[in-house]
Design a protein that fits this description.
Number of domains: 2
Strand order of the largest sheet: 6-7-8-3-9-10
Shape: globular
Structural class: alpha/beta
Strand content: 25-35%
Order of helices and strands: EEEHEEHEHHHEHEHEEH
CATH architecture of the largest domain: 3-Layer(aba) Sandwich
Number of strands: 10
Distance between the termini: 31 Å
Largest sheet: 6 strands, mixed
CATH superfamily of the largest domain: P-loop containing nucleotide triphosphate hydrolases
CATH class of the largest domain: Alpha Beta
Low-confidence stretches: 2-6
Number of helices: 8
Length: 243
């Protein structure tokens, strides 16, 4: 995937002037974002910038203090239809240690109402190189393998929008490559992605837009240049942090 231009499409997900306040502290201030099919929006920023808070608001797991989120042209809600349209990979896996990798993913497939949950679970696990450990309890797997199981579950139901928080954490190079390939495949199928990652080099192959979040506000928000490199963007990012 490159930064090449794509036909204009209606946004899958649109955040308008989002704000989130915790007591007297602002976690987000005036954040707007529009995600269309075939787009991957990379959000970077220092720790405490509000990246995870932003993903939680976009997923409907928290309510904004001000502003709004539109999903598929309608206000975001917590109903089953909205949940099926969004795939979320968060910092915490929320997987069950005593279940096998397969059982964890199959359980999610049943919750999503997929017609062949066992088959869907096996296919996703195989795609991520987990077929040989699919029937082992999660507590016996390495951190990187657990992360891949979480990725399999998040992408399981072919959501319209993927919200992904640090997907490459704990992964070896081959596993990270598999996740990048899967992200690219989901995008080419019409999905839109919001990706939070410190690993800009690993994410860069799928990125179409870049956003820098500092102190809860977007200080830069733009398309990725067609020949722009990850290192060039990182130089710009470091300059923005220095002010």
């Amino acid at each position: 995937m490159t930064g090449a231009p794509h036909p204009i499409a209606s946004p899958l997900l649109e955040a308008r002037a989002l704000e989130r306040r915790f007591g007297s502290r602002w976690a987000l201030r005036g954040v707007s974002l529009s995600v269309s099919p075939l787009q991957c929006h990379l959000v970077v920023g220092p720790n405490g910038a509000g990246k995870t808070t932003l993903l939680r608001l976009l997923a409907g797991l928290a309510r904004p203090s001000a502003g709004s989120v539109q999903l598929l042209g309608a206000p975001l809600s917590a109903d089953a239809a909205s949940r099926r349209s969004v795939g979320l990979l968060s910092h915490q896996s929320h997987l069950y240690d005593d279940l096998t990798a397969f059982e964890n993913v199959e359980f999610a497939a049943r919750l999503y109402g997929l017609p062949e949950p066992a088959k869907a679970a096996r296919v996703r696990l195989e795609t991520l190189g987990l077929a040989e450990v699919a029937d082992q309890p999660l507590r016996r797997l390495s951190r990187g393998m657990v992360q891949r199981v979480a990725v399999a579950r998040a992408f399981l139901h072919d959501p319209k929008v993927l919200l992904v928080d640090e997907p490459f954490t704990g992964l070896d190079p081959e596993s990270a490559r598999r996740v990048s390939i899967l992200l690219d495949a989901e995008m080419m199928g019409g999905c839109g992605v919001v990706l939070v990652s410190h690993d800009v080099h690993e994410a860069w192959s799928v990125v179409t837009h870049v956003h820098v979040l500092v102190g809860g506000a977007l200080v830069s928000s733009r398309k990725r240049g067609p020949v722009e490199t990850a290192e060039a963007f990182l130089q710009e990012y470091r300059s923005l942090l220095r002010g």
